Amino acid sequence: MAKQVKHLFGVVLFFLYAQHVYADVSDIRIWQSPDNVRLVIDLSRGHEHKIFQLKNPDRIVIDLQDAKLKMSLDQVENNSTEIIRLRDGVRNKTDLRLVVETRATMDFKSFPIIPSSTVKHHRLVVDLGRPQTKATVSAVPVIKQAESYEADQRDIIIAIDAGHGGEDPGALGPGRIKEKHVVLAIAKELQRLLDSEMGFTPFMVRTGDYYVGLRDRTEKARKANADFFVSIHADAFKHPSAKGSSVFVLSDRGATSETARFLADKENSSDLIGGVSIGDREDHLALTLLDLSMTATRTTSVQAGEEILKEMGQISKLHKRNVEEAAFVVLKSPDMPALLVETGFISNPTEARQLQDKNYQKKMAKAIYNGIKEYFENNPPAGTLIAARKKAATKFVDYVVRRGDTLSELAVQSGMDTKALRDLNGLNSNSLRVGQRIRIPNS
């Protein structure tokens, strides 16, 4: 009898051990951004974890219950300036301890992400906040200043948002081309063009390969005092035959097409891929006030979008010839016009090849730049350098000299000194000829 009980007890123990399921850690990735350092830990199942900080030396400790490390930490690519190295150990025979050695004391937070339609496995995200120094605090863009205008005539600030990044590659095209790389290249070229244009200053929402939450993108633009927000994408559709560039504004009534609805739903799920805690949601009143305040900016957005569409139509096929509408979360900005530009369908083999080409990327950036520039030269915000130039240009009109006109008489009629009118037109004498065009004050 005793032998039978002992045997039965052994069978039960074996069964329990065999049924013990571990949360295997299959991969760890480190993403560095200007604001923080992010660790993403891939797990085979949901888990419980604890995270705490130790000092002397500084380190962050992550304990994963019932977990095993199925990789070598030497394989983890560490490009962070704050993380010295990663270490691992076993606790209580079944738990995994990961130790993140840091160069300074850092803020930290963690949250799990459940599988989604795009990412099939569980993940644990750990964000380490950088020590706040003058170098790491986000700065307002440096404004270019023209010497010929007053100091209060500021630049127009354009916030450039390269979609996706880091943990979220965006859409994937043939040959595993990633949307996040394509749009960052176009965004950087747009930044270069705007930076070389007097009266405009670009602000990059994302400067490297890291993820920024959808709502954080417009918040960054707002802190930079941006006048305009443009989000650049190169998405995919269910069918590879879909092609063409598009421009979208935020819709208050729903999507204008099935494609627009599909793309908006796809973009809005980026936070589930890139790693953003979605526990917080705005209440109904806040969203209602937000929608009301965006009515005015939507009109401006459409007008600017039409200019960009016109320019893009010269280098690529347009998916739709009108500015489309869809409920993109990244466009929900109540105090600045905002657009989302789809530079093409990366799921289309032909357009994927174009989007990878550096010359085509430059052409696309130039088209977006030309559209923005055209719109703001016609509709400059008050107090800006472009507005001052426009005002100065409208002070004078072209006048065609007629028979009997003299410079002195035209000066008297215009309320100007004869010499001043001559200098305004770069004339060497007071002589005029019939049909000659000169500038006179606009009365």
Domain unit count: 3
Radius of gyration, taken over Cα atoms and rounded to an integer in Å: 30 Å
Q: How many helices does DSSP assign? A: 11
Approximately how much helix is present in the residues?
25-40%
| N-to-C CA distance | 117 Å
Please give the CATH class of the largest domain. Alpha Beta
Strand content: 15-25%
Which helices and strands, and how do they pair?
Elements lengths: L1 H18 L3 E10 L3 E8 L5 E6 L4 E6 L2 E3 L13 E9 L3 E8 L4 E7 L8 E8 L26 E7 L16 H17 L4 E5 L9 H10 L4 E6 L12 E5 L7 H11 L1 H5 L9 H29 L11 E3 L11 E5 L6 H8 L1 H21 L6 H9 L2 E5 L6 H8 L3 H7 L12 E5 L2
Parallel strand pairs: 1-5, 10-11, 10-12, 12-15, 13-14
Antiparallel strand pairs: 1-2, 2-9, 3-4, 4-7, 6-7, 8-9, 13-15, 16-17
General description of the model:
With 443 residues, the chain is an alpha/beta fold. The protein has 3 domains: 19-129, Immunoglobulin-like (Sandwich); 156-276 and 285-385, Aminopeptidase (3-Layer(aba) Sandwich), CATH 3.40.630.40; 395-441, Membrane-bound Lytic Murein Transglycosylase D, Chain A. Helices cover 32% and strands 24% of the residues. It is built from 11 helices and 17 strands. The protein has helices at residues 2-19, 179-195, 214-223, 258-268, 270-274, 284-312, 349-356, 358-378, 385-393, 407-414, 418-424; strands spanning 23-32, 36-43, 49-54, 59-64, 67-69, 83-91, 95-102, 107-113, 122-129, 156-162, 200-204, 228-233, 246-250, 324-326, 338-342, 396-400, 437-441. The strands form 4 sheets. Strands 11-10-12-15-13-14 form a 6-stranded mixed β-sheet, sandwiched between helices. Strands 5-1-2-9-8 form a 5-stranded mixed β-sheet, with no helix packed on it. Strands 3-4-7-6 form a 4-stranded antiparallel β-sheet, with no helix packed on it. Helix 2 (179-195) crosses helix 8 (358-378). The longest helix is centred in the last third of the chain and has 29 residues, at 284-312. It is elongated, with a radius of gyration of 30 Å. The termini are far apart.
